[in-house]
Design brief:
single chain, alpha+beta, Protein Transport Mog1p, Chain A, seven-stranded antiparallel sheet, elongated
Length: 386
């Protein structure tokens, strides 16, 4: 039986991946010589085979995945036995071993388990995911992924693509479906792994999770019903910091000296403010900070990092912008119920330019009509070309 030994397992943990054998001419698909399985590598990744152990290594720089598949008889008795042995080996080899997450998974349609761990090498801290699964016919599948901590989140989609491409003999795509690890969408599972690995600060994890929740909840609606501004007119910030498009019927009232404090647009009982917000570096932080201000609506939530809206922050990338926004119920100074819309916008091509804030106070009667329009206004923002 072929199984990953301590040396190969610990190469994952310490980030010093062992190259095995000769590269297979940059193929995108590897076919097992015995016809047991195939696996695909993304463009730009190399596939390497070790003739002695039967392990296949798929690598892109310091990011790597290893795969071993073999028919077993008596050993191991189950997947948990494999996981226990792997974890014990890693603990012995990595003094700074830390368990981050564990759960259920599937490999090539077979049920299994994984654990996520870190090894804090001061020169290059690494994150490793160790997974194992077994089919009813006792085919054992071992899949390990390794990445420097700094590249872990960006590497996850390609590592997942490799894992999902594993096909046993006679399988089609439906047979090899990869089940969710703890439920949720693939993107959410990847984000939770990155947060467990502390790739992002806690506040950023909150922002990203709420943004992704909201984005997924409304993605279908927004794609089929894109908001539009009929007969729009472009307002140019007198200081040249941005332009924004609003309906012709909206009245502009620049705020401060030569529009230093932005501009307020009025339309009936709706008040919309657009201006620079330069004390943060991400659009989501604009929304979170403005929501905590008393004049923005209700008091700050018990968790100061949590958005007000029921769906959380919603992030939309497009038109050269990163627009993150939230919608929630509030009250005006007279105690009357209103709708609140708060957005932050930054240029994708100029990340150092952050951010334009859009704040709208909307009468409840107009809320359903204006929600899409307010998003369209936020997405119409343009920054000067450099």
């Amino acid at each position: 039986m072929i199984r990953m030994g301590p040396i190969c397992r610990m190469a994952v943990a310490i980030g010093a991946f062992l190259l095995l054998g000769a590269a297979l001419n940059a193929q995108t698909t590897y076919r097992d010589p015995d016809g047991l399985y195939t696996v695909q590598a993304p463009a730009g990744w190399t596939i390497t085979k070790d003739a002695g152990s039967g392990q296949v290594a798929i690598k892109n720089g310091a990011v790597s995945a290893t795969l071993a598949i073999t028919q077993t008889k008596d050993w191991p008795k189950d997947v948990q036995e494999v996981q226990d042995m792997d974890e014990k080996e890693m603990q012995g080899q990595c003094p700074t071993y830390r368990l981050l997450q564990r759960g259920k998974t599937t490999l090539a349609g077979a049920p299994g388990a994984f654990f996520l761990t870190s090894c804090a090498d001061p020169k290059s801290p690494a994150i490793a995911e160790i997974a194992a699964a077994m089919t009813r016919d006792r085919i054992l599948i071992l899949f390990d992924a390794i990445s420097p901590k700094a590249r872990y989140y960006e590497a996850l989609p390609e590592l997942e693509a490799i894992r999902s491409s594993i096909r046993l003999k006679g399988q089609d795509a439906g047979d090899a479906t990869t089940a969710g690890e703890g439920g949720g969408s693939l993107r959410m599972r990847q984000l939770k792994k990155a947060c467990a690995a502390e790739v992002f600060a806690r506040t950023e994890c909150v922002v990203r999770e709420f943004a992704l929740n909201g984005e997924e909840a409304r993605q279908e609606y927004r794609s089929s019903n894109p908001p539009r501004i009929e007969q729009g007119i472009a307002y140019r910030d007198p200081r040249g910091r941005f332009t924004v498009t609003v309906p012709q019927s909206w009245k502009a009232n620049p705020q401060g000296d030569n529009g230093e404090n932005g501009v307020q647009f009025t339309h009936g009982s709706t008040r919309t403010y657009v201006g620079m917000y330069q004390s943060v570096t991400r659009p989501g932080d604009v929304v979170l900070q403005l929501e905590k201000r008393p004049q923005s609506g209700p008091a700050a939530s018990p968790d100061d990092n949590a958005p007000m809206g029921r769906l959380g922050l919603i992030q939309i990338l497009g038109n050269g912008l990163d627009v993150t926004y939230d919608e929630f119920d509030a009250k005006n100074p007279q105690g009357e119920p209103i709708g609140m819309f708060i957005a932050g916008a930054a240029g994708l091509a100029s990340p150092e330019v952050c951010c334009v804030a859009v704040i709208a106070f909307v009468a409840q009667d107009d809320r359903a009509t204006l929600e899409g329009l307010l998003l369209s206004i936020a997405r119409s923002i343009q920054f000067p070309k450099k």
